[in-house]
Amino acid sequence: MNVLASSNAGSYSSMLLIVVMIVAMYFLMIRPQRKQQKKHQDTLNQLKKGDHVVTIGRLHGVIDEINMEAKTVTLDCDGIYLVFDLNAIASVTQRSAASEVTSAAATEQKPAEEKTAETTEETPSDAATDDSSDDTKADK
C-alpha cells in the first residue's frame, strides 16, 4: 500500500508542476504581449493627419490620409504617396503640429483668463489711493 500512496503523490506533484508552469507562462509571455497589443491599438486609434510615423519596414513618412473603413493609411514620403495597411505603422515619432497647437492653446488659455480676471478686479485700497491722488491734483 505504501507503494501506491507514493505513486499517487508523485502524480499529484507532477500535475501541480504543470499547472504552475502554465500559470508562469501566462504571466511571463501572454499577458505582456496583450498589454503591448492594446498599447499599439491605442496608438493607431490616436493617429491624425500630419503625424510623423515609422512603418514596420522602417519607412519614415507623414500621414496624409487615414481610412478607418478600409484600415489603410496614406503616407507622404518626400512627395511620394504610399498606401499601407494601418497595422503596418510601427510607431509615431512626432505628433502633428495641429494636435500640439490645440493642446498647447488649451493649456495657455486657462492661465490667460485667470490673469485678465485678476487685473480687471480692483481692490478697495487701490480705489481709495486713486481718489486721494485726484483730490491732491485738484487742490494744486
UniProtKB/TrEMBL annotation:
Record SMART domains: YajC
Segments of skewed composition (Low complexity): 96-109
GO cellular component, one term: plasma membrane
Key words of the record: Cell membrane, Membrane, Protein transport, Translocation, Transmembrane, Transmembrane helix, Transport
TM stretches of this protein: 12-30
Subcellular location: Cell membrane
Biased composition (Acidic residues): 119-133
UniProt topology in membrane: Single-pass membrane protein
Xref: InterPro entries: Preprotein_translocase_YajC
The keyword Protein biosynthesis is annotated on this UniProt entry: no
Name assigned to this protein: Preprotein translocase subunit YajC
Organism for this UniProt entry: Secundilactobacillus mixtipabuli
